[in-house]
Amino acid sequence: MNLTLDEERMLSGRDGPGVRRAMELLVAVGEAYDAEAMLDISYAHILPTQMLQYPLGQFGVWSRELVEESVEGAAGFKVPTTLNPVFIDAGVARKLGYPQTEYNEAEASMQHGRQLYRRLGIIPVYTCAPFLIYPIRGGEHVATAESGVVLLYNSVFGATVNRETGPTALAAALTGKTPLYGMHLPENRYGQVLVNLKDDLDPRGFTKTEYALLSYYIAPLAGDKIPVFSGIPENISLNDLRYLSASLSVSAGLPMMHAVGITPEAPSIELACGGRKPAATIDVGSDDIGKTLRALSTARDDKVELVLFGCPHLSLLEIREIAGMLEGKRIHQDVNLVVSTLEPLREIARAMGLLDIIEDAGGMVICGMCTACPFLRRQQPDGFALGNLATDSVKAAHLFGAAGVKLWLGDTRECINAAVSGKWEAQ
Amino acid sequence: MSSITLSGKGASKGIVEGEALVVRETLSFLTDIDVNDGTLIRSGCDARGNSVAGKILVFPMGRGSTADPYAFYMLKKGGSGPKAVVNRVADPITVAGAIISHTPMVYKLDQNPVEVIASGDQVRVDGDRGVVTVMKRRTS
Questions:
Q1: What does the alpha-carbon distance between residue A51 and residue A411 come to, in Å, rounded to a whole number?
Q2: Strand partners, A141
């Protein structure tokens, strides 16, 4: 790779051993992709591993060691840097009866992270939806390890970003660099397979859950090919685009999609595909959406014990929608209802009176916590079980289903009804 | 004993020698390998049930979530990591995992390592120069 003088100096240790290791990692990744040079980034979003994936027990000790080694001697992040949510929130831990020992271990790791990242100048958004508080513009080059927003940045905002890993995103934040490869090169951004909606499928009436199901269905069929959706309404909300795109990262690891008329690079199918013929066409009908929904709904009995909203973190309008549906109602005594978002939005929701409505109904609004992480198999403490879950999130259904949690997947209204009655009503 | 030399690129430095374990499928350290003892748990995989611990792990390419390198690191810290990784194509996920866990890694070799190397072969991996030397087991 051709490195600038500044990059060479980082590689030779000018900015300390952490930055040197970061540059070594970025060079190795760049060489694997035949990148000719490094690219300056304007923003990074990192996974705080000791606060999120590996906070518990011996893993917690090792992840803290790893992060300390990774940032050794660094004066601070070289670009504005935000980070993902943390492992668990004290309030939700109490409410769901999460074991105290594991909570204390997690808290020690989270405390370690809060101090360490603060010293480096983190913008502590603690969310998987950083664009809701830290916007970027089209044409920016960024690095993020939150795969859900990689899709949105590339496909909706017109920024360029690769699906980074935890260590490479941290390395990018410490150096302000990422190797010039993948989604940063125009020729890799073209659509490759066409997604065609059959006549019996009209997305104009879609809920966010249906948008997520549409892309969850096509993801394994697209494989590693960038899909081009035609027939998505041009007035689709940013929020619905979040759900249309998020499923592609969950089940397929894709970094980009095109929605014709919406994605900046996709004014037409032809331009989205760079003038090439799509390698295949994937036809989707309403029965495919229904089958996908049923396959993700793994509960066998109609009892619901936990209703979970906010994977990914909810926007303000989604919190308002939930509050509107809950107003004047009372959540069943055997049900916990959790609404998960980021701190500034919770404060605005409080000012709007939405928190009072949700709490008066018996629910709780949490912020800054990963809605799924503590409940996945790898992390779940012995003897702790969630019970039957209801959610409107396809991403949550995918993650919890893989962890063996029994769940019902439906739209927001169905989940609210289940919260009130304690039972899932079959459609 | 005959030996074969494969030349390619080094992604993560270090020189080690050990017994090969060849996996024909793509691997995610997070979901396909038990972090506690290194057992391959990927369904439908011929090498399932074998442990990667202390082996020269040969597979075509990595895959997985953005947290996958941390799973590689945890496996190594727990003493059940592979001695080295040999890939046909390097995914950033594996490169990052190998580097943070100080595991030598080579890739882009002049012959397909998954075809040339067999499980049980003695293999020397030179991550500094991107060279793999395979000592084939004597066939009797």
A1: 31
A2: A160
- Chain B closest CA to A248's CA: distance in Å? 12
Write out chain A's pLDDT in tens, 427 residues: 999 999 999 999 999 999 999 999 999 999 999 999 999 999 999 999 999 999 999 999 999 999 999 999 999 999 999 999 999 999 999 999 999 999 999 999 999 999 999 999 999 999 999 999 999 999 999 999 998 899 999 999 999 999 999 999 999 999 999 999 999 999 999 999 999 999 999 999 999 999 999 999 999 899 889 999 999 999 999 999 999 998 888 866 789 999 999 999 999 999 999 999 999 999 999 999 999 999 999 999 999 999 999 999 999 999 999 999 999 999 999 999 999 999 999 999 999 999 999 999 999 999 999 999 888 866 677 778 888 999 999 999 998 988 889 999 999 999 999 999 999 997 6
Query: Which of B12, B90, B92 lies closest to A168 in CB terms?
Result: B92
Q: CA of B98: which chain A residue's CA is closest?
A: A25
- Which residue among the candidates B2, B7, B12, B65 is catalytic per the annotation? B65
B65 annotated active-site: yes
- Quickly list H helices, B54-105: 68-77, 92-100
Q: Is B90 on the interface with A (CB under 8 A)?
A: yes
| β-pair type (B131-135, B122-126) | antiparallel
Q: Taking the model in full, what pTM does it have? A: 0.95
Contact A70 B70 (CB under 8 A): no
Question: A165, A184, A188, A249: best mutation site toward chain B, by most B Cβ within 10 Å?
Answer: A165
Q: Chain A residues with CB-CB distance to B under 8 A?
A: 21, 24-25, 28-29, 31-33, 47, 49, 53-54, 58-59, 62-63, 66, 70, 145-147, 162-169, 253, 378
Binning chain B into helix, strand and coil, the percentages to the nearest 5 are 20, 30, 50
Q: Which amino acid is at A253?
A: G
Quick one: which of B89, B82, B103, B107 has its CA closest to B7? B107
Q: How far apart are CA A363 and CA A330, in angstroms?
A: 9
